[in-house]
Amino acid sequence: MPLVDLEDRQLQRALRTLFKHEEGEINNIWLMINTKVTVPTRDNVRPKRIPLRHSLHEPGTQRCLFTKNPQKKYHDMLVERKVKGIHKVLSLGKLKKMSPAEKKQLRITYGAFFVDQSILQQLRPVLGGEIYKKRCEPIPISLSSKDLQKEVLDAVRSTYMHFNRGSTYNVKIGTTALNDTQVMDNLRVSLPAILRNLYKGPGNVKTLHIQVSGKTPLPIFEAKDSEGNEENEEQKEEESSDEEDEDEE
């Protein structure tokens, strides 16, 4: 299976360029994977959890958890099990009753959102598309986990790979609140898991770029076109053969 081998020098140069233009701003940093073969439609596929070395959540981040009804049941469960890291519990029923202005205030108040993975597909039409456009997708967690505190901590220390039809994946690997070394750490740690979940695996990688939201992507890897190389070799052999025939004449 072909490997994706990143060159440290090229990666460091791209990260230095990226951070040079982001001083004073905090934005998301993405790994863009362009594939050779188009990814087919995959409906209702849950995002894959991808481990990171450095969390994307800044210290003091407030987190809201979306749950099934009744809301009190899940709030009390978190209190009883002494789960830290979740600051608000909101049921699907309560969310449905909220006005657009109240939902907008949620996005302002909370820096991250969790969702009981059993209601992930139900949440989007209720929550509204704006939060997804801003790439603040709620993070799915299992509320049936025996160690719920570990489940929350693992989610905080991870990113997520979403699956859509097309030839491009985008995976959040950092923010400009981190430094370039930390983003490189995250990329190195996350890449093996990303490639394992990639349609047709590492051999389907055409190019890799890193990008700050809304900015120009910076290249960090390009696959060798083996088919193109073979065609060039065949063409050279044909030209060489033609020259030999001419010499014989």
TrEMBL record:
Record bears the keyword Ribonucleoprotein: yes
For region Disordered, the annotated ranges are 218-249
Per the record, its GO cellular-component terms are: ribosome
SUPFAM superfamilies reported for this sequence: Ribosomal protein L1
Q: Where is the composition biased (Acidic residues)?
A: 228-249
Q: Which Pfam families match?
A: Ribosomal_L1
Q: Which InterPro entries match?
A: Ribosomal_uL1-like (IPR023674), Ribosomal_uL1/biogenesis (IPR028364)
Q: Which UniProt keywords apply?
A: Ribonucleoprotein, Ribosomal protein
| Protein's UniProt name | Ribosomal protein L1p/L10e family-domain-containing protein
Record the organism. Answer: Syncephalastrum racemosum (Filamentous fungus)
